[in-house]
Design brief:
By secondary structure, this protein is mainly beta. It is built from no helices and 17 strands.
C-alpha cells in the first residue's frame, strides 16, 4: 500500500473454509516505515456479517525505517463453524506518502504444536566439471520453538553434507543453508539425484521434512589432454607431461522470445 492521496483501499480473498479447525490462526508478515496508513483485517461471513477486526495497526505511530515483522493471530473459533469466510484487508490513508506498507506470506492454518519444514533449490542442469550450488531453507511452521534441527543431504544415496542448525527457530522463523559440491568430467552418470532430509525431535508432521531434486549432467565441451608421458627415472616420484587440449569455440543462438 502506497497512498497517493487520502482514501481507502481493500484487498479481498476468495472463500475460505475453516471447518474442522481446532485453533485457526492467521499468519502474515509486514514491513513499513512511518506513514499515514492504518491497516485492518476482518472477515465477511456468508450471511454478509462483518466481524470485528482481528488485527489492526496505525503506521503513523511507526518509528524507524521498518523491518519485516511476523504475525500469528488467533482467530475466533466461531469461524470454524461457518460455511466460509472472506478475509478483507482494508487500508485507510490520511494523505499521500512516499513510504510503502508491504504484506507477504499471508495464510490461514491450523498449526501443529511442533512442525518443521524444508525446501530445496537446485539447478536443473550443470556441465560436468562445474560446481553445483544447492540452497536449503528450513522453517518453523509449528507453535513450539525448534532447536537442534539436523540436516542431511545425499547425492545418489551418498551423504555429501550433514549439519545441525545452531540457532533455535521460533514460529515462522526460517534459515538458509548453502551446500556446494564439485562434479567431474569423468562422471559416467547423466543425472544426479539430490535428497535432503530434516530431523527435528518431536516433529508431528514428517511429510514436509524431505525434499528432492534431479540435476541433469551435460557433457563438457572440452577435449581430453593428449600425449601423456612419464618423465624421469626417480622411483619415489613420477613426473607427468601432456599436451594441452585445443579449445573449441561454441556458437550459441539465443533470443528474447524464449524467456518468459
Amino acid at each position: 500500500f502506497k497512498p497517493r492521496a487520502e482514501g481507502t483501499s481493500t484487498l479481498t480473498t476468495g472463500k475460505i473454509n475453516m471447518k474442522g479447525a481446532a485453533a485457526p490462526k492467521l499468519f502474515f508478515s509486514y514491513k513499513a516505515g512511518q506513514t499515514p496508513v492504518r491497516l485492518e483485517m476482518f472477515f465477511k461471513l456468508k450471511d454478509g456479517t462483518i466481524t470485528a477486526p482481528v488485527w489492526s495497526n496505525n503506521f503513523a505511530n511507526q518509528s524507524g525505517t521498518g523491518k519485516w515483522v511476523n504475525e500469528a493471530i488467533d482467530l475466533p473459533l466461531s469461524l470454524a463453524a461457518e460455511d466460509y469466510a472472506i478475509l478483507k484487508i482494508k487500508a485507510s490513508a490520511d494523505g499521500s506518502s512516499e513510504e510503502t506498507v508491504y504484506l507477504d506470506n499471508i495464510s490461514i492454518t491450523d498449526p501443529l504444536q511442533r512442525d518443521a519444514a524444508m525446501e530445496l533449490s537446485a539447478p536443473e542442469s550443470v556441465k560436468k566439471g562445474q560446481t553445483v550450488k544447492l540452497k536449503l531453507k528450513v522453517s518453523n511452521q509449528g507453535l513450539d520453538k525448534i532447536e537442534n534441527a539436523a540436516v542431511t543431504v545425499r547425492l545418489n544415496d551418498k551423504i555429501i553434507h550433514q549439519s545441525t542448525i545452531e540457532q533455535g527457530l521460533k514460529m515462522l522463523d526460517e534459515t538458509e543453508i548453502p551446500v556446494t559440491y564439485a562434479t567431474t568430467i569423468l562422471d559416467p552418470s547423466s543425472k544426479h539425484v539430490i535428497k535432503a532430509e530434516l530431523t527435528v525431535p518431536g516433529d508431528l508432521n514428517n511429510d514436509n521434512n524431505t525434499a528432492s531434486a534431479n540435476i541433469s549432467l551435460e557433457k563438457a565441451n572440452v577435449l581430453p589432454a593428449t600425449d601423456l608421458k612419464s618423465n624421469g627415472d626417480n622411483r619415489n616420484s613420477v613426473e607427468l607431461s601432456w599436451k594441452e587440449p585445443e579449445s573449441i569455440p561454441e556458437t550459441i543462438t539465443d533470443n528474447f522470445e524464449s524467456y518468459e
